[in-house]
Design brief:
The complex is a heterodimer of chains A (479) and B (606).
Chain A: H1 2-11, H2 18-35, H3 52-70, H4 78-100, H5 104-113, H6 115-124, H7 129-155, H8 157-160, H9 164-169, H10 177-189, H11 198-205, H12 208-218, H13 220-229, H14 236-258, H15 264-285, H16 287-319, H17 335-348, H18 355-368, H19 375-397, H20 413-428, H21 434-437
Chain B: H1 8-34, E1 38-47, E2 50-58, H2 60-83, H3 90-109, H4 113-131, H5 137-167, H6 180-193, H7 202-205, H8 211-219, H9 222-232, H10 234-237, H11 241-262, H12 268-288, H13 292-319, H14 332-335, H15 337-351, H16 357-371, H17 376-401, H18 418-442, H19 453-474, H20 483-491, H21 496-526, H22 529-546, H23 549-575, H24 579-605
Classes of the chains: A mainly alpha (479), B mainly alpha (606).
Amino acid sequence: MLGLVIGLFFSLFFRSYWRSTLLVLIIFIMFFLFSGSEHLIFKNGFLFELDYVANSLLLLSLWVVFLCFLSRQKLLNHRRSARFCFILMSLLLFLVLRFSFDRFFLFYLSFECSIIPITFLVLGWGYQPERTQAGLYLVFYTLVASLPLLVLILISKRFFGLSMVIVGFSDFYLSGVLVIFLVGAFLVKFPIYIVHLWLPKAHVEAPVRGSMILAGVLLKLGGYGIIRFFPIGEFFAFYKRFFLRLRVVGGLIVRLLCLCQIDIKLLIALSSVVHIRTCIGALLCGGEWGFAGAVLIMLAHGLCSSGLFFLTGALYNRTRSRSIIINKGLINLIPTFRLWWFFLVSVNIAAPPSVNLLSEISLIRGLISWRGWIFIPLGFLVFFSGAYRLYLFSLRQHGKIVFSRQGLVSGRISEYLILFLHWAPLNLLILSVFYLVCFLSLKKIPFCGDGDVVTGGKDWRLLFVNANYIFFINYNLTQ
Amino acid sequence: MKLKLGKIIYNVFFLRLLRRRIFFFFSFMYCVMFDFCLFFEWELFFLNGGRVVIRLLFDWIRLCFLIVVTLISGFIISYSVYYIEGDRDYLRFTFILLIFVGSMVFLIVSPNLISLLLGWDGLGLTSYALVIYYQNESSNNSGIITVLRNRVGDAALLVVIGWCLYLGSYNFIFYRFFDRLLIFLVVLGAITKRAQLPFSAWLPAAIAAPTPVSALVHSSTLVTAGVYLVIRFRGLLSQYKGLSVFCFVVGVLTMFMAGWVANFETDLKKVVALSTLRQLGVIFIILGLNQPLLAFFHLVIHALFKSTLFMCAGFLIHNTRGRQDGRFGGFFSLRSPILGAVFGCTNLALCGFPFLAGFYSKDIILEHVFRGPLWFFVTALVVISTGLTVSYRIRVVYLRRGKRGKINALSVSRDFRGVLLLSSFFLFSIRVFGGFFFSWLILFKGRVFLLNVFEKFYILIVLAFFCVYITLFLSKSFKIIWYKVISHFFSLMVYLPNITSFVLPNFFLMSGAISYKRVDKGWLEYRGPLGLSRGFSVLRAKLQTSQLAVVLTQYFIVFLFIFLLLFRVLVCLKSSKSVALKVQMCNFTLNMFKNLVIFVLKGQCV
């Protein structure tokens, strides 16, 4: 872990050579993929610890940043590109630190530090006055909500000074207004409805790679924070009902909002608000299934929305517009792009062989275990989330073409590669999904050869059976 | 970089599907004879007591259905050689079609909800991609209607899966007892997929797809998916009488509506689509009577003749230069006698002419309905809608074969394409003989009905009445004054598409727009952070004015004055002895102080 951090730190100095940075990133990803999360905590050393949630999110952030680097196609201005590399790599460094620190204060520190690069990303590439506003919204919304958390951490340093695992074992609970302070920081980052305004603005103003990172990884920080602080609170017991109602009502409203947008980026940004909303609900009351679903949806949504943003960027490069109306009728001009839109949109509406479907099912299962009646709003939510994504897809592909530009370049192979790298993990991960989310339950699988328990098919679980040891963390998640 | 797959792709896939079909046929015979079934399972993961497993089950019902699906899809793919000829994107078309068939196959063989969803969602999405195959706005709208209706069913199924996981297992074949609500949701999903009454607008809209797709969708794949789901849930469904009655009533209403509307429809493909809707109503009725095997039988038979009808319709559309209006389709039997014969026989089979395929299923179904413990009104509806079927069939045949139709002055008809004849004629022969075959295999137990003589002849009486009626109607000697109003009402499908695709979406879109304007841009932004910053800027302006030079000098003078005064007072107080004087001095000081403060504040405001 330390090696990874040091490596990332040094790679900051190679900032003018983005190809070499790419290589470094690939090496890191390989390292992580092959080391895997066979143990629940595979490194639990000085200041660092990783469990499967952090591990999968870490992989996600490495992957998304890697794709961002890959999606750089032209190096017009060397200095600007170097600056871009520097910002991305520093962002990645903070993200890695954040997913791997085990002290609450350090966690908080890297949590806030990751805002700095993204603010630069939002502010730096352009000169419109809206950009300033977007940057201000971003900084103020997140900071105002998270400063009370800092106070909280500093006040009760007796507990927060410990490593996160140990706090999970202690019977230290927060209650009352303090809970709002604690959870508010993450809910604004997530963002929950009412305080979501910074997100569409930041997305609309950020460059494509900025939005890729923002949607891919940064939104997941809030969820990760809630997961980390979960052991400290039986805290949601009081506020659960309120938050859930807010979630349901807000979810419906945001979905309806999505149906009225004509800016593609705005639509995708709002749709990520919707996604996150279900995730919060499941985290608050879902039990273990909801928890697994939340982790899965963070992964799935990260890849998927990042891919959608990349596609929007590719369209923008061609037609110089993000409006749905101007980008109409592209089926005849760039048919391959349509295929990719269809793939990504269908993954996003939870079409079958994708992690999104599994996450949605487990979220529904988690939420239903809270109250039965919630299936009615859930059904509506599933329907409307399908509706606005199909609206996004169909309105653009069909209809009359606006010939505002005379020439169009068809898709490049490198773009297809990036899209494939977004799409393929989503559909392939379903085969190894237990590898990501349910290590806690691996111990329940008997050894092969124990009789007739394993039925049919090639049994590749055998490979992971040695993960049966070390389960000493308990998230207090089951109700 | 173009794929080197030419037109040969059709032959390749046709032969592959043919091979599959032969394999399925023999395994089907084996399963029926030896009562054999095969069960695969593959565990994906296991969490907290719920396991996510892909399961596949092959038994004789599934294999029988697989035979039908592969048969029809094989011939339809070979028919597409004729239909999609000259199109630029034929590869896209063929691949989507194959994915469509593949997901149907997956849906058929899956006994649990998750692997069923794989086929279910796959069907929804690929059907959407097929409906929007042509690049124009109307096909886009039809596609959106189709996919959103199907999405309702998806949502219901997702909720059911989540709930089942909560209960423990979503392998519905293992459930002996199910929650009523869940069964209702399953039925809801089935209703949306098979276009029963509140959701039936999408089926006529989905004919915007190329004709081979419509043939596949209407005969054996998409709409039958819902039926199939209910057949699979039959054991659980039959426990709740209320739901059975619900199914029955929905089926009757759909059947009646579709039959009635089809009499006023002029679009050729839409008539066929409405007849599908009607047949689905029949199947739903028989499911409501708890006869799933019979429903399955009718499903198979219906699949066989519906695909041929669509093939003929596609041929006609090609020959009338892409017009779908039935009134342009005259002289069919003159232009292409072979297909004309096929078409006529298919229509007869659909009406239930004795010893053609439709007869075997329809007769039994109707007798079931008469025998069933049902009230008179519903039975009357069923009988009347059967008559309506005959009337619109005759109307179609009349328009098609009669000499009243309008055709172009120069019209060329090419009947003798080998592929076309092969595909339609083979299906035709199956339709003639398939009735015996499947009735012997599926309904091998035989059925006994006790009916009185009058009940037995209900149908014949009604048929005769409707034959006379439609003949009069067509020869225009039978005039109704409010005919125009009625025909407008019914040719728009009882205004159902208007309600479900204008009124409801408008409501939601309007509420979305209003909430965007009022809540998002208003309360959350204008009154929220922007309002806050406005308030702060007012405050800031006040503070800035307070720091002006004039104000500062005022402050300075005033404070100096106060200070001197206080000093003086303190000295006086210290030196004097009497209490009264002290009090007086204090009061004086306080008053002075107050006046000064007021003076200062006023000055600041100025």
